[in-house]
């Protein structure tokens, strides 16, 4: 029982980071109908950026987040402009999968050449401190990472619901054609949306780098995880991404704590297949989405 | 198929059969074996991803099933005759098709991009299984297969010929389905599945059939690959890059065409082998590959063959209109623009 609850605590804390990564992914899909297979690579890139800032100038990864998010926002806009905008409308859905995968490979190659393929980790002074509450151990850095992810998600939520730009994005998600008729510039929304998705990847990457060791190939693990989360929650739904992240993270942490760590990565794939058997559109997806 | 088409096919396969008798260097034959492997797999992928419009990203899982089937069999059995593994290929295809059936039944409830994602999770499940079922697969240590006892000087030839036969098989299936109602049903699924179901096409049956045949062929190539390499590691037997190569080659050559995947494999696999050789172990090769990939997608979104066909058709039309005989003197002038209508 103790192991189970410990697993749940760990799962919930980790879910914050996953939710942050997945919210960017699902946002990009909602706006552009593009499944971004480079999201994992962008997270790893963010992790490397804050690793470099930490080792070269001693910038704390939490403080590095504003820098990395701005950098990745610009990179995301550039990717959208260079590779996604030129695609023709009729085969965008299929081609964008391939194009974003190619971007992921490009990033993987770049990271491998720049930082080599050995594992790196960010070793801050507080990396190992923890506290014990009612017999359950909580690593402080995980708690901070969780709170920070919640903060970033809240910011994203405010941006989407309280600003003019957010309203334009939501209008585009709901009905791209009416939004265009009402004067929303689709291209600008796409570019900003992709940038925003990349920025959340960067923020999540800085946090991820604090929690785990990483190398360029990590993006394969991340992307499979992220895809499961967004499909589970329903593509295009940020709330769904958060719930999906909770389910995935808690279930794999519990399996890893009570059964065996080797099978934890299997758990959420099975949950995903079971959910799709009942609801092909995911938990919070609309039927129309599932039938694109 | 037109007479020209038959001639083209005959000439292509005659060249393939004749090629080894030029005593090519080992590295050239090795490259030819890999080009053929990818030509077969892309043709197989084309059945589902091209004709039916279901972009599966999970095919590498079935490549792995084929590879592990051979490796696991020879873990417990002696290799008495070097040709035996090839005789087992139809059985391996059947196993893969049977594994593929329930997967297709679940994943084909979703469409387009969601389908792609669900199938890519299948790929990762297979990879996790290969790593973690250590008692069966020996995990990350990999499995050895007894090396084929073919003559060293002509080692690649048996693999080359078997793959040629397999390519002929895959292309024959593609050709037959293009001419039959199955091909029509598949393209109706791609165009508008709900409408196709509405007018009475057996949508589900035809989708499942295409998927099972496609993964069966893929598994056979996996088995040949494992036997050729005589050692398999889970990360190479079940590799996302294999899936992506199949997809990319089909897209490059031209989706839903007979020759597209073959052309795509010829161009890309050659390029990849040369790039990998040039840059050795360095990851610069990955960057170069990704750039080739992006350029193809942006410049030729419809693929090489459809682009050339369009170009030829336009040219032919232009020639045809240019060769229209000059109007006879007794025709009214109004008839002239009509004859040149195609040029306007």
Describe the structure in your own words:
The complex is a heterodimer of chains A (292) and B (344). In chain A, 75% of the residues lie in helices and 3% in strands. Chain A is mainly alpha-helical and 292 residues long. The radius of gyration of chain A is 19 Å and the shape is globular. Chain B has one domain: Orthogonal Bundle (ABC transporter involved in vitamin B12 uptake, BtuC). Chain B is globular and about 70 Å long. A two-stranded antiparallel ribbon of chain B has the order 1-2. Chain B has 344 residues and is mainly α. Chain B has 16 helices and two strands. Classes of the chains: A mainly alpha (292), B mainly alpha (344). Chain A binds chain B through residues 33, 35, 83, 86-88, 91, 93-95, 97-99, 101-103, 105-106, 108-110, 112-113, 117, 216, 220, 224, 227-228, 231, 235, 262-263, 265-266, 269-270, 272-273, 276-277, 280-281, 290-292, and chain B through 55, 57, 106-107, 109-114, 116-118, 120-121, 124-125, 128-129, 131-132, 240, 244, 247-248, 251, 282-287, 289-291, 293-294, 297-298, 301-302.
Which features does this protein show?
heterodimer; A: 292 residues; mainly alpha; ABC transporter involved in vitamin B12 uptake, BtuC; two-stranded antiparallel sheet; 12 helices; 75% helix; 3% strand; globular; B: 344 residues; 16 helices; 74% helix; disordered C terminus
Note the total helix count of chain A.
Answer: 12
How would a textbook summarize the main sheet of chain B?
A: 2 strands, antiparallel
Quote the CATH topology of chain B: ABC transporter involved in vitamin B12 uptake, BtuC
Strand ordering within the main sheet of chain B: 1-2
Mean residue pLDDT of chain B:
84
Number of helices of chain B: 16
Write down the secondary-structure element order of chain B: HHHHHHHEHHHEHHHHHH
Output the structural class of chain A.
mainly alpha
